[in-house]
Design brief:
0% strand; mainly alpha
C-alpha cells in the first residue's frame, strides 16, 4: 500500500468519524439513547467490541511512544473521543513517519534502533 493511499484512507476515515459523531450529537440524546443501547444484548456486544478496539490502538500507542504523558493523553483522548481520535493518531503517525513503515508502526525512535534493523 502506497503512502498516498494510506494518507487518503486515514483522512477519509477521520472525516467520516467526525461526520458520524456530529450527526449523533446533533440528532440524538447521548444519555437516553445510550441507556437504550445498554439494555440490548447486541448493544452491550457492540460497546464491548468498540472498547476492545480502543484498547488495541492504545496498546499500539503504549508500544510506540516513549513519553508517558503523551501516551496517557492519547489514551484518555481515545476513551473519550473514540475512533475519531484513533484515526487522527494514525494520520499523525503516518505523516511523521515520512513513508517509513517501521517508523509508522514502531515509532521513530524504535525504528532507528539497531535491534530493529533488517539482517
Amino acid at each position: 500500500m502506497g503512502r498516498k493511499f494510506a494518507l487518503g484512507y486515514l483522512v477519509l476515515l477521520t472525516v467520516i468519524m467526525a461526520g458520524v459523531l456530529h450527526y449523533g450529537f446533533t440528532q440524538g440524546d447521548f444519555f437516553e439513547d445510550g441507556g437504550e443501547l445498554i439494555e440490548n444484548p447486541w448493544g452491550i456486544v457492540s460497546l464491548f467490541d468498540v472498547y476492545v478496539g480502543f484498547f488495541l490502538v492504545i496498546g499500539w500507542i503504549v508500544y510506540r511512544e516513549n513519553c508517558l504523558v503523551k501516551t496517557l493523553a492519547w489514551s484518555v483522548a481515545i476513551l473519550i473521543g473514540g475512533n475519531l481520535v484513533s484515526a487522527l493518531y494514525a494520520l499523525i503517525a503516518l505523516l511523521r513517519s515520512g513513508g517509513d513503515s517501521k517508523a509508522f508502526f514502531l515509532g521513530e525512535e524504535k525504528a532507528r534502533s539497531p535491534m530493529n534493523s533488517e539482517s
